[in-house]
Design goal:
Layout (H helix, E strand, L loop, with lengths): L1 H14 L9 H9 L7 H9 L2 H8 L5 E6 L1 H11 L1 H9 L4 H8 L2 E3 L4 H9 L8 E7 L5 E7 L13 E2 L2 E2 L7 E3 L2 E6 L10 H9 L7 H9 L2 H8 L5 E6 L1 H5 L4 H6 L1 H9 L2 E3 L4 H7 L5 E5 L5 E7 L2 E4 L2 E10 L2 E6 L9
Parallel strand pairs: 1-8, 9-15
Antiparallel strand pairs: 1-2, 3-4, 4-5, 5-6, 7-8, 9-10, 11-12, 12-13, 13-14, 14-15
Amino acid sequence: MKRVVGILFVLLLLAFPTFAQDQTIADIVVASAEAEDAEFTTLLAAVSAADASILEALADPEAELTVFAPTDAAFAALVEALGEEAFNEILTEEDTPRLNEILLYHVLPGIVPSADVVAGLEGAEADDMGAVSFPVVTLSGQSFDVAGSLAEEGSVDLEAGITVAEANLVLDMIDIEASNGVVHVIDAVIVPELRTIADIVVESTEADSPEFTTLLTAVGAADPAVLELLSDPAADITVFAPTDAAFADVEGLDDIVADTALLTTILQYHVFAGSVFSFQLGDLVDDMGDAVVEMANGSNATITVDDMGVTINDANIIAVDIEAINGVIHVIDGVIVPPTE
């Protein structure tokens, strides 16, 4: 397999402009956009329109980054899918939160060469069809799966391709080395979730099989700071969201909803700072399978990971990794109540 990856790298050198290894990722994007056979022109325009910190990160010689770079054709396909007006709105909006999120979704912390991608897939557990995948967390804070399939001998089937989210790796345009990382070219723009947690809760109540209707009512009755946090696109939080059935089991729910201070404390007890995905929960726990985490109201809750599943206090986590621009939602089957003095 290393030999195959090496052959791909040689093909890359023949098919793509040669860049000096003292060039940063930003230098490579600019040089490619200005080349005779220009590429990355739309990527350069997007980076230029985004928050200045993104260009600074790509130009930082001390950084260590992996960039999945969409081609101009990939951006053209996105423009066609969204419509030119909608795409231009993303490029020109004043505070650029959606554009920033999209660009950062294409960047991983650390340097991940193609050989490490292949090794990660070969080390993953295959399903009955031989499909393998592993998750990665991007600089946007959201995650996606790197996926492929295994040939009969257990090596990655490169003819079947490797995907990152909805995009294919362009296998003759990988391992473009920079002084501050590596660039892999992809054939589509990968778009993260751009709704906030509040948006997702509201839309869930309007679905054919509505959920979170009581949660939405409770958030509306609580201190406005709760809704502001769930609506803040710049926030980074994990929310354990009780189902409608979970709220229905709470004795004296009407009295709790009428008590703004108590209700606010209970809702804040379902939130903690930082996005923690289901595949990261195991990293939090001790040898006994428990992790004590501080919730937004200041009280501690216990997450337990064992053969029976994952719980927070006495509630089971029944659905995981509903991603938002400002965090992640895990659905629970009970309302958890903070300890009292």
